[in-house]
Design the sequence.
């Protein structure tokens, strides 16, 4: 019998790496959903406070929910372009995704250098002081700002900007407000109080009258006397290595995302070239 000639057909393998494709997709689908949640919460919070009816006011720009909307929008757009671009193998969306990451990378490096340059010139401290001053003044008017400063004071174990006396800038805690019948006059919020780990219920009245002349108890044993600006500076110095490491890791993963997206884009173009 004549020898049978067996033809082996080489399988046409795709140029597109499944690892790159689904790595970009899986990371960005999480980013997309996370950004959408933050954006939705921010819009809902502002809508509940009727801030959209007075968008031109400074309160809108000082509201924590506003920054949540900005952060959520950025995460949503980047996640959307990366997720859909990789899944649909769309070179335009992948290019857009790459440019978003590059712009964000440049902005983060610029801000990092700016903070490093200005950290000893008082500019950052003055901006933080002005921000906390606004939070103290609107403490009872905005629940988001109230929750934020309560969390800050209780977690950092501080009180006010430079000390408890800064709460005199608030209408309710001002010592002259006792004339108007404010029970919180010459006091501080409960978040300034030193808590006991065994306490089950938070004492909301622990800061009453602590700044009033002739207060019977020792104030230093009841409330924190150190300001949040000084505490923040000390925490930054103590955790400088960890903060720098996290910052470098964020930049590294962004650069990795740029490299992955560009490699996937080249794979798609190479695959398209085989079809011509």
Sequence:
């Amino acid at each position: 019998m004549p020898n049978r000639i067996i033809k082996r057909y080489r399988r046409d393998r795709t140029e597109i790496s499944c690892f790159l494709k689904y790595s970009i997709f899986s990371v960005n689908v999480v980013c997309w959903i996370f950004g959408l949640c933050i954006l939705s919460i921010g819009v809902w919070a502002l809508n509940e406070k009727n801030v959209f009816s007075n968008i031109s006011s400074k309160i809108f720009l000082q509201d924590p929910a506003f920054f949540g909307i900005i952060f959520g929008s950025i995460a949503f757009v980047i996640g959307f372009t990366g997720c859909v671009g990789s899944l649909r193998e769309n070179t335009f969306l992948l290019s857009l995704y790459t440019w978003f990451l590059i712009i964000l990378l440049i902005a983060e490096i610029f801000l990092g250098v700016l903070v490093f340059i200005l950290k000893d010139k008082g500019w950052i401290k003055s901006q933080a002081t002005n921000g906390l001053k606004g939070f103290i003044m609107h403490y009872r008017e905005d629940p988001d700002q109230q929750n934020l400063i309560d969390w800050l004071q209780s977690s950092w174990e501080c009180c006010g900007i430079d000390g408890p006396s800064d709460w005199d800038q608030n209408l309710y805690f001002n010592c002259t407000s006792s004339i108007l019948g404010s029970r919180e006059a010459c006091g501080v919020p409960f978040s300034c109080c030193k808590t006991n780990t065994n306490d089950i219920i938070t004492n909301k009245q622990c800061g009453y009258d602590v700044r009033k002349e002739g207060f019977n108890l020792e104030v230093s044993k009841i409330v924190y006397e150190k300001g949040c600006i000084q505490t923040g500076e000390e925490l930054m110095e103590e955790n400088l290595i960890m903060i720098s490491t996290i910052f470098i890791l964020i930049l590294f993963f962004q650069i990795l995302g740029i490299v992955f997206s560009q490699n996937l884009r080249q794979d798609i173009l190479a695959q398209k070239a085989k079809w011509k």
Remarks:
- The CA atoms of residues 158 and 268 lie 55 Å apart.
- The mean pLDDT is 84.
- Residues 240-275 form the longest helix (36 residues).
- The helical segments are 18-48, 58-62, 64-87, 91-118, 123-137, 143-156, 228-238, 240-275.
